[in-house]
Amino acid sequence: MAPKQLNFITGNKNKLSTVRAILGDTVDVQSQSLDLVEIQGTIEDISADKCRRAADVIKGPVLVEDTCLCFNALKELPGPYMYAGHTSFKWFFEKLGLEGLNNLLAAYPDKSAQAVCTFAYCEGPGHEPIIFQGRVDGKIVPARGPMNFGWDPIFEYEGQTFAEMNKVEKNKISHSFRALEKLKDWLEES
Questions:
Q1: What residues are designated binding site?
Q2: DSSP single-letter state for residue 67
Q3: End-to-end distance of the chain based on CA atoms, in angstroms?
Q4: Is residue 130 helix, strand or coil?
Q5: Domain ranges, residue 72
Q6: Residue positions in the annotated binding site for Mg(2+)?
Q7: Where are the alpha helices (H) located in 2-147, listed in sequence order?
Q8: Quick one: 40 exposed, middle or buried, by C-beta within 10 A (0-12, 13-18, 19+)?
Q9: Of 8, 17, 23, 68, which is most buried by a Cβ count within 10 Å?
Q10: Is omega for the bond preceding 78 within 30 degrees of 0, making it cis?
């Protein structure tokens, strides 16, 4: 059964407004910022564990989100280590920067990548999280466009980097949009 109110675990107002815009009046989305320990593992394992931890703290229904960048030549790495909200992201991204991320693929002819957004929903303590994931296929290119969000200037989709797209255009095709559409369908069916 779908909740009437959902605690989205984020301190990021932009993420909150995006989630509210896409989910519409399907559910009342409130936000709460929590500092949660994050495990290492697969994209899905990290999201599910984080969701369980949040549900235990909140004692009710929660939604968590993680976004990452996966290089196909590197078998989906850096993947979970490039989650925008993951503690390793800041360290990893500060050390490498956009040029360093490009250099990770210098020895490989395959520059294809996936932008991945994973939302995990948990009804509350003791319940198993449900995963909703969106992926966008693209490729890694030298940086183009403004530096508004992490790796957007190097992820190209159909000739434009995410950084070169306006927000409305990006939100119609983004990995976040695709994951939220799945969540919205599930909420409406429940």
A1: 10-15, 38, 50, 66-67, 149-152, 170
A2: E
A3: 5
A4: strand
A5: 5-189
A6: 38, 66
A7: 13-23, 43-58, 87-103
A8: exposed
A9: 68
A10: yes
Under-70 pLDDT residues of the chain: 1-3, 82-90
Separation CA 118–CA 53 (nearest Å): 16
Query: Are 177 and 16 spatial neighbours (Cβ–Cβ below 8 Å)?
Result: no
106/1 Cα distance (integer angstroms): 48
Q: What is the pLDDT of residue 70?
A: 94
| CA–CA gap between residue 125 and residue 173 (Å, rounded) | 33
pLDDT digits (tens, 9 = 90+) for 11-60: 888 888 888 988 888 889 999 888 887 788 888 999 999 999 999 999 99
Q: Which residues contact 158 (CB under 8 A, 6 or more apart)?
A: 138
Distance, in Å, from the CA atom of 19 to the CA atom of 176, rounded to the nearest integer, reads: 9
Domain tally, the chain: 1
Model confidence pTM above 0.85: yes
> Residue 130's domain is classified under what CATH number?
3.90.950.10
Residue positions in the annotated binding site for ITP? 10-15, 50, 66-67, 149-152, 170
Whole-angstrom Cα distance, residue 113 to residue 177?
18
